[in-house]
Amino acid sequence: MDSLIGSVIFAASGFLIFLCFKWFDKRLLLGFGLLFAAYIGVDDVVTGLPSLVHATNFIHGDWNWTGKIYSLCFSFLVIFALRIDKTSAGLTFTQKNLKSSLLALFLLTLLSFSIGFIFKPGLPNVETVAFQALMPGLAEEITYRGIAPALLLGLIKSKSASNAMPWTTILITGIAFGIWHGISYSHSKLSFDVMSALFPLIGGIAYGWLRFNSGSLLLPIIAHGLGNNVFYLSSLL
Question: Which H or E element spans position 129?
Answer without folding.
Answer: helix 126-141
